[in-house]
Design the sequence.
């Protein structure tokens, strides 16, 4: 998918001015937080499980080559095929190759962020294979030709009215006078339309939440059952997953599953957790005849062994998005690529380069809630800070910011001068604000005062007050 | 693609000083040969009565329904009654599972029982669960001719027969049982863990049932005295 990360600043301005989006975000945002809090409270072992989940993934990353080798051997042993892809292009080529061999015309798809990352739908269409997203949220955004705005709730930015309009446009074979005002009616319509697609599909493409080295198994987690119909009914099941999805054993997968749904939707367990190993067996009356796994690197192996390695523990639950004040203010599309929110701001520069994604690490207030809720205990603020350092080192930071930082550093290194300066500034601002104690406009800070007043200093600096207290 | 494979592995291996290679291999072998349980939550732990109680509570919390029978022979009549009460045709699809095949189906004479994988027109299915997990009210189904996978997803009503003795406290016990039957490192083609009927929250975060799978999930627990 083409990255629009460079336009982050204008994307944000547009998002903030979009009253419909703002309404949806305000409405739905807090629900995710409540649900997770409730699920966490319901399991006393939750935080201890997070520690173990982190340790499992750290162990995997330190032994990734060995676990990948074992996983591959087990897939082959169970009759499946493994395809390695260094780049998005190679992954697309591998999938198109399988489709061509099977003369596939229609591909149903389970929800997969990797598929978004490699722009699979466009490639399938160009090759004459019609891709049909079957996760309801993904189907909704496919109709609109939009990227997902959230990792687990891709259509969280849409209202039922927008969806009704899209359905009327897309499902022209249905009665134009039908009533589509209620959400269950919309879901029912999608169910009926997509059921036929499952039956007609030649290949089913899903992602994987985990790949188990012990057994050569891929796992998908859904609530709708769409992933299962996608992978069970067609001639072939193609799994697309990235290298860091590996876990050693069934027990290890189980531990991480216990924190996944609780962090994502606040469920104790998702409705459908499915473990798939190889193609249909000789006696089986159903299941896919072929089983393929495409394993994508796309820059991830470059992250191993660096200060950014911890990002590879991510299980894509979306909790950091739900708890991020920046994400909740601007929504997912503003980020401009596949992965939004705090984890997106960390992953995107690693996958497409900090040059293109330089704005994203700055889209954070460093409030730390993302790290607080991450089930895999990824130190997101620290990783964002590392990216800001890289940005500065590579001279990607705008001139005004660099100059500003230079000026600040000059004073910060000269404490006497610094104290004098801040004392004068505090007094000045206090006088400027008059009796209100607030400033409606301020030179060099219009970015702040355009949206809200600046609280004025009360006349003394922090250091002066500190000194008084210690002596007082 | 083979080049891609070797380049990916080369980069992973060169990524950092990973220490003694023999020790790394030994650590991985030990972990895979002797899978260890991590922390197992207490919620489901307890005697059979406790496990049933937790299972029922959790399954009902996610929109499933549960019925407990003392006598296996009552299952056919119970299935017929369930279908009648939910206004569904008196028809059921099941796999070749002997446990299901040997039920006294003649006791529910109006009920049509078909065998095989699910067809699109099927309105209800009956499967025999490999296990139930109390912790989250989860049913475990294995693929194969006995209980084809499509039965879990295509019909509008999914009825599951679950023996009380097969309700475990946690998922971990299911893995142990599977390894005993299939051998270490071996799995059936598909293991489905199912917790309640199909749902979606993708429109305005409002929960709607069903999405693509069954609208109703009904678990019949057989607990012999």
Sequence:
């Amino acid at each position: 998918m083409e990255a629009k990360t460079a336009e982050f600043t204008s994307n944000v301005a547009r998002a903030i001015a979009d009253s419909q989006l703002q309404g949806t975000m305000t409405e739905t945002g807090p629900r995710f937080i409540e649900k997770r809090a409730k699920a966490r409270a319901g399991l006393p072992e939750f935080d201890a499980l997070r520690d173990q989940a982190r340790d499992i993934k750290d162990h995997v990353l330190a032994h990734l080559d060995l676990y990948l080798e074992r996983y591959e051997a087990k897939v082959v042993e169970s009759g499946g095929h493994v395809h390695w892809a260094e780049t998005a292009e190679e992954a697309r080529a591998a999938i198109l190759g399988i489709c061509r061999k099977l003369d596939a015309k229609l591909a149903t798809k389970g929800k997969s962020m990797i598929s978004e990352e490699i722009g699979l739908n466009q490639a399938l269409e160009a090759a004459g294979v019609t891709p049909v997203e079957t996760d309801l949220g993904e189907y909704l955004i496919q109709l609109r030709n939009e990227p997902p705005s959230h990792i687990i709730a891709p259509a969280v930015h849409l209202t039922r009215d927008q969806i009704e309009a899209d359905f009327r446009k897309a499902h022209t074979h249905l009665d134009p006078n039908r009533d589509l005002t209620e959400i269950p009616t919309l879901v029912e319509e999608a169910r009926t339309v997509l059921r036929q697609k499952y039956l007609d599909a030649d290949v089913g493409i899903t992602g994987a939440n985990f790949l188990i080295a012990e057994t050569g198994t891929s796992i998908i987690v859904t609530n709708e059952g769409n992933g299962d119909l996608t992978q069970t009914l067609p001639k072939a099941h193609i799994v697309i997953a990235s290298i860091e999805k590996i876990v050693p054993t069934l027990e290890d997968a189980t531990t991480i599953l216990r924190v996944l749904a609780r962090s994502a939707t606040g469920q104790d367990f998702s409705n459908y957790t499915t473990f798939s190993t190889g193609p249909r067996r000789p006696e089986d009356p159903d299941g896919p005849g072929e089983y393929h796994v495409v394993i994508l690197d796309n820059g991830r192996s470059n992250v191993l062994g660096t200060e950014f390695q911890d990002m590879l523990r991510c299980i894509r639950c979306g909790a950091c998005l739900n708890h991020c004040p920046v994400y909740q203010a601007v929504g997912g599309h503003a980020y401009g690529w596949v992965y939004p929110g705090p984890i997106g701001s960390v992953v995107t520069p690693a996958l497409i380069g900090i040059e293109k994604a330089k704005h994203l690490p700055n889209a954070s207030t460093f409030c730390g809630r993302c790290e607080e809720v991450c089930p895999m205990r990824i130190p997101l603020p620290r990783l964002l800070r590392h990216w800001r350092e890289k940005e500065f080192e590579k001279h990607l930071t705008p001139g005004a910011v660099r100059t500003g930082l230079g000026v600040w550093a000059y004073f910060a290194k000269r404490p006497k001068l610094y104290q004098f300066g801040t004392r004068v500034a505090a007094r000045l601002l206090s006088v400027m604000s008059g009796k209100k104690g607030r400033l409606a406009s301020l030179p060099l800070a219009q970015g702040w005062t355009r949206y809200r007043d600046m609280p004025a200093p009360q006349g003394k600096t922090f250091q002066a007050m500190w000194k008084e207290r210690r002596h007082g | 693609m083979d080049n891609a494979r070797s380049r990916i592995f080369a980069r992973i291996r060169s990524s950092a000083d990973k220490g003694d290679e023999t020790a790394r291999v030994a650590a991985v072998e030990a972990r895979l040969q002797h899978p260890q349980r991590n922390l197992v939550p207490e919620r489901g732990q307890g005697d059979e009565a406790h496990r049933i109680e937790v299972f029922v509570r959790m399954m009902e919390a996610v929109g499933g329904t549960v019925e407990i029978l003392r006598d296996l022979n009552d299952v056919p009549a119970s299935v017929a009654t369930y279908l009648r009460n939910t206004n569904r045709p008196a028809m059921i699809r099941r796999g070749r599972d002997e446990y299901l095949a040997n039920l006294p189906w003649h006791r529910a004479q109006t009920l049509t029982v078909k065998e095989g994988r699910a067809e699109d027109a099927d309105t209800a299915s009956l499967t025999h669960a490999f296990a139930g997990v109390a912790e989250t009210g989860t049913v475990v189904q294995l693929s194969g001719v006995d209980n084809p996978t499509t039965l879990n997803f295509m019909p509008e009503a999914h009825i599951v027969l679950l023996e009380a003795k097969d309700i475990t406290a946690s998922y971990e016990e299911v893995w142990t049982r599977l390894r005993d039957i299939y051998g270490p490192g071996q799995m059936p083609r598909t293991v489905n863990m199912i917790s309640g009927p199909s749902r979606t929250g993708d429109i305005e975060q409002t929960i709607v049932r069903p999405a693509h799978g069954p609208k109703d999930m009904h678990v019949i627990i057989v607990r012999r005295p």
In short: Chain A has 21 helices and twelve strands.
